[in-house]
Amino acid sequence: MDVGALAMQHSHMRRGLSRAVWSLAALLLASCEEPPAGAPAGAVCGAASECASARCELLRCVTPCASAADCPAALPACATLAGELLCLPVGELRLTRALAPAPAAGAGADAGAGAGAGADAGAVAPVEVEVPSHASGLALLVRGGGADLAQLAEVTGPDGARVAAAGDDTTAVRYQPSPGASALVLPQSPELPLLPGRYLVRASAGAAGGSLEVRYLLGPPPASPRLHLHLHFVGLAGACWPTSEGTLDAARATQSVGFRALLDEARRVLGQVPIRIGDITYQDLAPDARWDPLLLTSGRTTPAFGALLSTGSAPDGDHALDVFFIKSFDPSAVAALSSSVPGPLDAHGTPSSGTVVALSPLCGGLTPKDLGRLLAHELAHLLGLFHNEEADGTQDTIADTPMGPQNLMYWSPTAIELTPGQRFVLLRNPTLDGR
Ligand SMILES: [Zn+2]
C-alpha cells in the first residue's frame, strides 16, 4: 500500500467535513480503524511513501514544527530545510550517491582549468545537497576505485556563487583534488560560515566511477570527539630508533617507552582542541625498496607515496586515519607529509589516505616527543587545517592565527599552539567520532 497516498486521502477527507461530523466519523472509525499507516517520525526512510507523515528528509521520516517543543525525541531540532521548518535529527548523518564513470577526456574539456582539474564542470551532472539551518559542519568526500583524480569539479552554494572547484585558486575556500579520494570540509574558518540551503555538487571519480559521500554534522559539535588511528610500521630494521628498544614494529610499539612518548605528545597537542585519540590499531608492512627511502619530487607526493598509502586496508567509514612510519624520505629534510588538506578521512586504501612520518629526524637531534608534535601537525592537516603561514608567506583564512612559528600549523612546526579559530574548524569536521 502507498502510505503517502493514504495519508493524503485522510487529509482531504478532513477538510471536507464539518467539525461535528468529523468527530462523529472519528468515533465510528475508532473500533474498526486500520493499524497506523507508515513509519513514525524519526524512523529511517528511503522515500516519502514509507512515512506516516509522507515526508522523508535526511533519511528520516520528518514532521513540520513551529519550535523544538513540537518535536519528538528522535528528531530534537526544529530547523529550516528547503525553506520549511521541520523536526530534524542531530549528530552525524551520511548520504552516499553513486558516481557514473567520468566522460572520456577531451570532449568539452575546460582548457582554462589549472593543473589537476581534468573534468569540465558542465559535463558532470550535479548532485543537489540540502544543508539544514542547524548544520555545523559538512564534508563532501569523492571516492574513486583507482588512482584517477577524485575531484569536486565544482561546488556552488545557496547564493549561486562558486564555493570551490578543482583547479580554481580564486575562491576563498581552498580545495585540491587528489588521486583516489578527496574531500572538502566546511567551514574552513569561523569567518567563512557554512551557509544553509541548496548546494550543487559536480563530482567525478574517474574512469571507473565511484561515490560521493555527503556527511553532515547536525546541531552543535560534540564536546570532545575521538579520532581513531591505524598505525603502519613499514620495514623499520636499521631505522633511527633507540637501539635499546630494538626494531620498532607493531608488537614493540605497544610496549616502547619512546613510542609512548610520541603518542602522548600527539594526544597532548590534540587534547587542546579537545580531540581525543581513540582506538589505535598496529600493523606491520613488509620492507619494500619503493619506500626505503620514500622518493618525493620537490617535496610533493609521487606514485610511490600513493602506493604506500594505498596499502591501508581498513573498511571505510570508521572515523580513522592511516599513519605510516618509514625510515626516511628522499630528500631527507622532509620529516612528515600528508596527502592533502583535508585528507579523505574515513576512506582507506586510496593513494591519498593518510600521512607518512619518517624516523630519520631522530638521528638529527629530534626526540620521539618531537615526532609526536609533527604527527599532530599532520593529523590537523588531514582534519582540515592549512598552515598558518606557508614558507612563501601565504596565510590561512582563519582570522586569529598569528604569523610565525609559535603555532602548531607553521610550515616548519616547533610549537603546539592552536587558536580558538583553528579549534573551531577542527571540531566541526563531521568525520570525527562524536560518540
Ligand atoms: Zn604542514
Commentary on this structure:
By secondary structure, the protein is an alpha+beta fold. It folds into 3 domains: 3-89, no CATH class; 92-218, Jelly Rolls; 226-427, Collagenase (Catalytic Domain), CATH 3.40.390. Helices cover 17% and strands 26% of the residues. The protein has 7 helices and 20 strands. The protein has helices at residues 3-16, 19-29, 250-253, 257-271, 303-309, 368-383, 420-427; strands at 56-57, 60-61, 77-81, 84-88, 91-99, 127-131, 135-144, 149-156, 162-164, 178-179, 181-186, 197-204, 210-218, 226-234, 276-285, 294-295, 320-326, 329-330, 336-338, 355-358. Strands 6, 8, 9, 10 and 12 form a 5-stranded antiparallel sheet that branches. Helix 4 (257-271) packs across helix 6. The longest helix is centred in the C-terminal third of the chain and has 16 residues, at 368-383. The chain is globular, with a radius of gyration of 25 Å. The chain starts with a helix and ends in an 8-residue tail after the last helix. Residues 1-35 and 106-119 have low confidence and may be disordered. The chain binds zinc ion. Zinc ion (ZN) is lined by residues 377, 381, 387, 411.
Question: By helix and strand content, what is the structural category?
Answer: alpha+beta
Tally of individual helices:
7
Rg: 25 Å
What's the mean pLDDT score?
87
Give a short account of the largest sheet. 5 strands, antiparallel
Unreliable segments (pLDDT under 50, ≥5 consecutive)?
1-35, 106-119
Which range best describes the helical content: under 10%, 10-25%, 25-40%, 40-55%, 55-70% or over 70%?
Answer: 10-25%
Mass-distribution shape: globular
CATH architecture of the largest domain: 3-Layer(aba) Sandwich
Percent of residues in β-strands: 25-35%
Can you tell me the CATH class of the largest domain?
A: Alpha Beta
Number of structurally distinct domains: 3
Please tally the β strands and state the result: 20
Tell me the series of helices and strands, N- to C-terminal: HHEEEEEEEEEEEEEEHHEEHEEEEHH
Q: What is the CATH fold-level name of the largest domain?
A: Collagenase (Catalytic Domain)
CATH homolog superfamily of the largest domain:
Collagenase (Catalytic Domain)
Distance between the termini: 38 Å
Ligands (ions, cofactors included): zinc ion
